[in-house]
Design the sequence.
């Protein structure tokens, strides 16, 4: 064990150490210590560097959590959670860490391993790339690189919502230190560690739909008019449209208001969503305008298959399935040729469905 | 512990490059080590304004809006979303371009927040506009024989929007560096469409006072000025229009020297960043713009 760790541990033990299963005291030049698995040792501080290897693990573990890991509580707690510090005592934890412990966070997979000094080294990659040799992935070392990776999906489309389940694959940050690991996670999923921590502490501040819409101003002020205390069915639709696991990996914790839960499940994500986000509010503004229209009755002539085809097209777009439909899969109603045939047959030159004009 | 810096910017749901200047300027400032942390926070991206402060450990935070003018965002949206307790626009005692700073407590985190005026109205922004003219012409001595147009969005809804543009046009005119300086607008008179009507000089540098390149600076303004029929065709710098050479600079916010303005805002609010300001000026004068890829 190197002198830095021994000296730091001895300094702390002068005030008494009781952390993760090791208790130690230093008085003058002598130390005494005991560990959770029953090992005891005592001697001169100068000889502390030569303690039993079983004890050394406790000492390097203490050093990592007090001198190497970021001391900000949310980050510290997140790093502890990644290696299961609350579930596994030091000897068992070190055995596990020797083989690498992997945890997922959204679409990220974080693997923590020990280095020779008992510090931790983190491998961060897309969960879909678990098990892939790091040499076969694009290597990055600087957390800033994550910003660019998070910006576009696999098809190079902009990702305005960082927690959309569309993170590109094929990259790895193979050797991050603890501070850099948390920074990189932040670049992929901003503020998720902080909100997860607050939730664990029981003080996540949730702002529900009603309260969020009421504070909107400017062009978003219009969403208040969609919220007249006449039920919350429309908010169910919003949540079903935007806040499903297929669209966002945050677990929705906001409801209609403090007393009224939505009927739609909030999802299974590890990190909580504490209020309607800017994407939801922007969409709600558009729906507010659209929903203010009065329904009218239109008459269309459709065959049963054509009606089903319209349903299949809406489904395919809503589920993002359009690009998965095979070119010549004429059996799928949302197939492009099928859609083009429907348009050729039923739309007039002005684009009116079944030749029926849209009336205000 | 040193204080932190949080830069508040608009961001976009549609344009991937909107946030690029924010990140670039933050990176430049981060590299100086003047703050314990430098964080970006956005109206339309993440981390959201509502959660920007909780990602910061420091007890004391300088909050600088990366916006062009005082108005709706700086007076209503940012203070509300960052939960600055007791905020009132009167705390700035501003005439529309003179906001400096006000110290408040954040309701979210209890941090002390030194809320600064926007970058766009800071005096040193005039220097960035001149730097932009140097960058686009490739001439560090640009001025003689040149006209300069400072272009703003302009809006009937907020008089401060035009004030910021006119403020810098006046300041640069007083520098006596360019033969002529004009403030022009997209949505109010005098309009940028008629840019050549306002200048005698054969060469005109056009610098839009916008934070990021996007729809207005890359599509509207070049087409309105007649640099191209369709922005997708691109245009030369300079392009000849009505017998004038138009040197179109794109958004001033992409100029690397903008990082200096962010620091100046924090310095005016009491941050100890004089060393960082010198470093940033050295590094960013003549550096390539932060336009992203």
Sequence:
């Amino acid at each position: 064990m190197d002198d830095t760790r021994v000296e730091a541990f001895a300094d702390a033990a002068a005030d008494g150490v009781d952390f993760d299963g090791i208790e130690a005291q230093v008085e003058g030049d002598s130390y005494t210590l005991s560990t959770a698995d029953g090992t005891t040792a005592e001697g001169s501080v100068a000889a502390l560097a030569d303690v039993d290897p079983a004890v050394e693990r406790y000492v390097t573990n203490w050093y990592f959590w007090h001198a190497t890991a970021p001391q900000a509580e949310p980050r510290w707690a997140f790093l502890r959670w990644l290696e299961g510090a609350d579930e596994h005592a030091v000897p068992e934890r070190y055995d596990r860490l020797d083989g690498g412990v992997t945890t997922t966070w959204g679409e990220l997979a974080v693997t923590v391993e020990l280095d020779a000094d008992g510090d931790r080294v983190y491998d961060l990659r897309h969960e879909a790339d678990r098990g892939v040799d790091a040499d076969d992935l694009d290597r990055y070392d600087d957390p800033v690189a994550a910003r660019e990776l998070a910006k576009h999906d696999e098809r190079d489309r902009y990702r305005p919502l960082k927690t959309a389940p569309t993170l590109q694959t094929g990259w790895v940050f193979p050797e991050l230190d603890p501070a850099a690991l948390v920074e990189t996670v932040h670049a992929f999923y901003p503020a998720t560690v902080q909100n997860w921590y607050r939730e664990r502490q029981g003080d996540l501040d949730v702002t529900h739909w009603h309260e969020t819409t009421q504070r909107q101003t400017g062009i978003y002020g219009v969403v208040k008019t969609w919220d007249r205390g006449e039920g919350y069915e429309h908010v169910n639709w919003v949540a079903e449209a935007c806040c499903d696991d297929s669209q966002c990996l945050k677990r929705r914790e906001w409801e209609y208001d403090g007393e009224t839960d939505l009927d739609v499940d909030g999802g299974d994500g590890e990190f909580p969503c504490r209020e309607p986000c800017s994407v939801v509010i922007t969409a709600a503004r558009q729906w507010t305008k659209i929903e203010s229209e009065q329904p009218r009755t239109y008459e269309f002539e459709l065959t049963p298959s054509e009606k089903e085809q319209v349903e299949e097209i809406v489904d395919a777009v809503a589920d993002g399935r359009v690009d998965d439909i095979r070119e010549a899969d004429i059996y799928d109603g949302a197939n492009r040729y099928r859609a083009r045939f429907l348009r050729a047959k039923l739309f007039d030159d002005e684009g009116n469905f079944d030749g029926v004009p849209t009336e205000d | 512990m040193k204080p932190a810096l949080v830069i508040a910017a608009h961001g976009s749901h549609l344009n991937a490059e909107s946030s690029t200047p924010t990140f670039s300027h933050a990176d430049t400032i981060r590299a100086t080590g003047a703050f314990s942390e430098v964080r970006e926070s956005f109206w339309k991206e993440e981390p959201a304004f509502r959660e920007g402060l909780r990602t910061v450990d420091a007890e004391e935070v300088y909050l600088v809006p990366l916006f062009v003018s005082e108005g709706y965002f700086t007076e209503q949206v940012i203070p509300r979303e960052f939960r600055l307790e007791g905020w009132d626009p009167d705390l700035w005692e501003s005439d529309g371009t003179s906001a400096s700073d006000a110290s408040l407590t954040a309701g979210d985190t209890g941090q002390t927040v030194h809320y600064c005026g926007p970058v766009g109205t800071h005096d040193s922004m005039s220097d960035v506009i001149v730097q932009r003219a140097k960058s686009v012409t490739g001439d560090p001595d640009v001025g003689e024989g040149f006209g300069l147009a400072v272009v703003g969005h302009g809006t009937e809804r907020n008089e401060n929007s035009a004030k910021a543009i006119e403020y810098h046009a006046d300041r640069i005119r007083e520098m006596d560096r360019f033969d002529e300086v004009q403030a022009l607008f997209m949505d109010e008179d005098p309009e940028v469409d008629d840019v050549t009507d306002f200048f005698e000089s054969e060469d005109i540098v056009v610098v839009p006072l916008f934070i990021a390149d996007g729809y207005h600076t890359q599509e509207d303004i070049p087409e309105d000025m007649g640099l191209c029929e369709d922005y997708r065709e691109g245009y030369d710098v300079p392009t000849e229009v009505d017998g004038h050479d138009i040197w179109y600079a794109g958004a001033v916010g992409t100029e690397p020297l903008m990082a200096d303005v962010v620091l100046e805002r924090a310095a005016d609010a009491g941050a100890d960043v004089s060393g960082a300001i010198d470093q940033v000026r050295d590094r960013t004068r003549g550096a390539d713009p932060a336009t992203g890829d």
Summary: The two ends of chain B are 36 Å apart (CA to CA). DSSP finds eight helices and eleven strands in chain B. Chain B touches chain A through 23 residues (CB under 8 Å).
